Amino acid sequence: MTHSPVRFGVLGTGRITRRLIADLQSTPGASVSAIASRSGDRAKWSADSHGIAAAVEGYAELLARDDVDAVYIALPPSLHHEWTLAACQAGKHVLCEKPVALSAAQVSEMIAAANSADVRFLDATAWLHHERTDQFRQWLTTTGPQEDSAKAAAKKDDLFDDESESDDEAIPFRLGPLRHLSASVSFPNPFLDGDHRLHASLGGGALLDLGWYSAGLIRFASGVLPKEVYAQAVMRGEIVARVSATMIFYDELTATLSCGFDTSTRKWFEIAGTDASIVCDDFTRPWAEKPARSWVHEASGKVHSFVPPSEVNVPAEPNSAPEGGVPVHRCLQERVMIGTLVRWIREGAPSGQPAPWNAFHEQALHTQTMLDALDESIRRKQPVSLG
Ligand SMILES: NC(=O)c1ccc[n+]([C@@H]2O[C@H](COP(=O)([O-])OP(=O)(O)OC[C@H]3O[C@@H](n4cnc5c(N)ncnc54)[C@H](OP(=O)(O)O)[C@@H]3O)[C@@H](O)[C@H]2O)c1
User: Fold this and answer.
1) Is 15 close to ligand 1, i.e. is its CB under 6 Å away?
2) Three-state SS letters, 24-65
3) Do the Cβ atoms of 51 and 73 come closer than 8 Å?
4) Atom 30, ligand 1: residue with shortest CA distance
5) What confidence tens digit (pLDDT) does each residue in 189-238 have?
6) Residue 159 in this model has a pLDDT that exceeds 70
7) Separation CA 337–CA 70 (nearest Å)
8) Is the confidence at residue 247, as pLDDT, over 80?
């Protein structure tokens, strides 16, 4: 069956749109039909630069258009809640930039608005859609005890002759029960005065802007909220410039989070179990000229290096052909993310199963809940319990 493309309208003309518009235009099943700015001139300049048919003055005017099926909200964080609610009301699907909002209460309202309007909502946290992240998801299934007696007994009788068993067998290590998670995301960037990241009223500060990634990784690996967090911050005027935090989870799991605007570029994590740890030095977005790599260090000292299956033997230049060979493609996480949203829009909710977007909604809501608790801990200068 052939489908007409899902037509996106873009709200905002800032830095991220330069990259994401190209991704929207090059993802099969998606197109960009309009872009809106507070200024008609800026909308026209941006539409002309990207080859977009309609330049629109005003975000509400874009939402009223019939040639827009979905919106990409690329505005400062303080505006995500308002324009997501307005988009849902207008019956448009939503791809919303991170951090999703200023508080978990806002995120809950955004998800509820999308569900009640029966439109799809997805936050633009692209690393969650990378093929490498699927490897992490698979490896995280090996956090059980080393020798599961029920499974071992079942193996003898070949009762577990199913897909999950063979996947498990294919993983050459076990993490063992999770013990510690650590995520650090920062970059040293003295923003220009007007940048929204330097203004608390626009949702600025490193906690929301970069803590979104660190907290998101910790939630991704743990799958749950911590019991207690304690955070300290270095302030720059009214905004948080750097955060260092610890967390305690169920069982004996702990986590450390770091993020900041004044530290060398870091996009690292370590997921440590009793038997092995996963290490990745660019989880938010693979370094431009390197494959999407990660490592597993076993307790014995043995080290496994991984790249995702589609990037095995990929040359340094993305999407180029090896000598005499067929073109190979790196996993481009933004396009996978957009493709996922397009699929959800076309296919609707599956019958008899949980909707696939629920897990992404819960990840976003929990991430923002952690950021709320970290913010409270910074302000109160004491540990905060999450109930
Ligand atoms: N830049 C990146 O690399 C990057 C990466 C990942 C995620 N993001 C996320 O994407 C969102 C936008 O980031 P950005 O870097 O593109 O920001 P930006 O360059 O400051 O652009 C934001 C756009 O929002 C519109 N806007 C509306 N009201 C505004 C206000 N009061 N102050 C400033 N701008 C206002 C402006 O467009 P008009 O005036 O034309 O309407 C502006 O161009 C943020 O949530 C950010 O976290 C950015």
Assistant:
1) yes
2) HHHCCCEEEEEEEECCHHHHHHHHHHHCCCEEEECHHHHHCC
3) no
4) 76
5) 767 778 899 999 999 999 999 999 999 999 999 999 999 999 999 999 99
6) no
7) 14
8) yes
CB of residue 13 inside a 6 A radius of ligand 1? yes
* CATH superfamily of this structure's domain 6-124: NAD(P)-binding Rossmann-like Domain (3.40.50.720)
| Helix (H) or strand (E) segment spanning residue 177 | none
Averaged over 348-369, what is the pLDDT? 96
Give the integer Cα–Cα distance in Å for 82 and 109: 10
- Specify the higher pLDDT residue, 301 or 2: 301
User: Right CATH number for 130-329 from 3.50.30.20, 3.30.360.10, 3.40.228.10, 2.40.110.10?
Assistant: 3.30.360.10
Residue of 45, 50, 98, 196 best suited for mutating to test ligand 1, as the one with most atoms within 8 Å of CB: 196
pLDDT at position 189 is 78
Contacts of residue 351, defined as CB under 8 A and 6 or more positions apart, other chains included, come to none
Measured CA to CA, the distance from residue 194 to residue 209 in angstroms comes to 16
| Residue range(s) occupied by CATH 3.40.50.720 in the chain | 6-124
Q: Is the pLDDT of residue 147 over 60?
A: no
How many CB atoms within 10 Å of residue 174? 21
Residue type at 48? D
Distance CA 86, CA 104 (A): 18
Which residue intervals of the chain bear CATH 3.30.360.10? 130-329
Within a 10 A sphere around the Cβ of 346, how many other Cβ atoms?
12
- Omega of the bond prior to 99 within 30 degrees of 0, cis? yes
Tokens of 283: 């989880």
Place of tokens 């305690």: 248
Q: Which atom of ligand 1 is nearest to the CA of 75?
A: 24
190 contacts: CB under 8 Å, gap ≥ 6: none
77 lines ligand 1 (CB under 6 A): yes
Map residue 178 onto helix, strand or coil: strand
